[in-house]
């Protein structure tokens, strides 16, 4: 092997210094400039001594050479001998190259700095901010809800880290969310799975972290990798809320994230809501109202004045808030027995329009005993449900539905999906029949005898991209609505969609409930990012065991057509072992955004409920 020469070592050292960036290049340019000025000054004093006229010492010659190097045009005003003019011309020519290179280096260096800032690679110095890791359509829902939640807070910050261009993320958020109020959104470009990129988010000072399930193949693996990166980092660990697409990966995600992580199972939550909405019209609207920060929100309170009173008495304790349950050391209980005593270590779970509205009433409300109706609960009977289309969560939906219906109920699956009706062994109450059907075809739908069913569920077909799947769902809904109008049939319709922007189009079909699964999960993630203690409350609401939300005929509670206070409705529900949280006006059931549903009305508010109106209660099945 040949020996390395001095020239090779010198060139290697020079290459290394040149590769250090703009500062190193400017340094070499400065060395060349000094050399040029010294050479020019030396030649001037040797070839043209005493020139230009009036120059007395070497320092002045160096200054003149420097001015010619920095301002090449200065040679035009020079006068002197041929030697002097030749040297100054050479100096100006060399200076022209040096200045050009300097301008180019500065321009390139500034461009690199601007590009770095544009890519969002500087560290965030905020504190008490909410961090969102990853990117999906849910980010718009989360940001919009957090903006509403922080409307009264000054200096609120939401920081987003994703593998997208910083400016593109900021522009997309402004386009979808609109006015951000007092909240600032800071975006950074990077991989949430990389510890170096996570360091940009100042996680040690963050209030909470939201991990989104990305819109790519095997999204749960990506979420689990982010949770591993969060768990391995040093410093304080803020609470983490993460979205998963499949409950099968929950154990691995919980192990990766540790005890500070709360997992939201997207498929499980959406499946439960679809099933509940198919059985109770308006359920999706009620849940959306409880999940967003616009209307009734859920709060936890520890009022000392209620310690020792029963839950039944606590139902009337708030004038502008509705008690719905207790959070005890042993867990959350919604709609507990009326004689349950509130202990000192309990928290009362209430629905209120704002935190400031959760105040105890001055006295007991007036109850109109003559308006209260006492009726028994009708026994459950076998039902017929039609399921149109098929996707990955259909099996889960059917199994949850099997836990609700009475024995002898029938489920008809109509779809042209190759997996339709598979893996359904072990059902107890449902008999499942499967038919091949193009659900967008009017004649195919009419052949199903839709009028024989009480409930129709329209799923989004996962063989198509979300936009096209929503288009097909809209076509099916239009066909069903026209069939209802033409044939005079009545059955509840709940549909699943992906894009919130399609809700307005779907409202034309007058579907009873429209479940936008991505929006629901985004709302839930935003709620838990603000208060992770609500996780048990929402888990209880979406569970098939215990008390759930039901809209029930108003005539079962109070005399219809009679002017009563909502406190009278609450009292009537209490005597039935239920908790009333609102009502639904049937005449406004097709009017967005609340579709006739009123949650948490003032206890003294006079209302007149009609025969077709409903009282919304928390009750056992």
How would you characterize this protein structure?
InterPro entries: CASTOR/POLLUX/SYM8-like, CASTOR/POLLUX/SYM8_dom, NAD(P)-bd_dom_sf, RCK_C, RCK_C_sf, RCK_N. Residues 127-263 form the RCK N-terminal domain. Keywords: Ion channel, Ion transport, Lipoprotein, Membrane, Transmembrane, Transmembrane helix, Transport. With 621 residues, the protein is an alpha/beta fold. The protein is built from 19 helices and 22 strands. Strands 3-2-1-4-5-6 form a six-stranded parallel beta sheet, with helices on both faces. A six-stranded parallel beta sheet has the order 13-12-11-14-15-16. A four-stranded antiparallel beta sheet has the order 7-10-8-9. β4, α8 and β5 form a beta-alpha-beta unit. α5 crosses α17 and α10 crosses α17.
Task: Write the topology of this structure.
Elements: H1 6-18, H2 22-47, H3 58-70, H4 82-119, E1 130-133, H5 138-149, E2 157-162, H6 166-177, E3 184-189, H7 195-198, E4 208-211, H8 219-232, E5 240-244, H9 250-257, E6 261-265, H10 266-279, H11 283-291, E7 297-301, H12 311-314, E8 321-328, E9 331-334, E10 347-352, E11 384-388, H13 394-404, E12 409-414, E13 430-435, H14 442-446, E14 455-458, H15 466-487, E15 492-497, H16 503-506, E16 513-516, H17 517-530, H18 535-541, E17 548-553, E18 563-565, H19 566-575, E19 579-584, E20 597-599, E21 606-608, E22 614-619
Parallel strand pairs: 1-2, 1-4, 2-3, 4-5, 5-6, 11-12, 11-14, 12-13, 14-15, 15-16
Antiparallel strand pairs: 7-10, 8-9, 8-10, 17-22, 18-21, 19-20, 19-22
Helix pairs in contact: 2-3, 2-4, 3-4, 5-17, 8-9, 10-13, 10-17
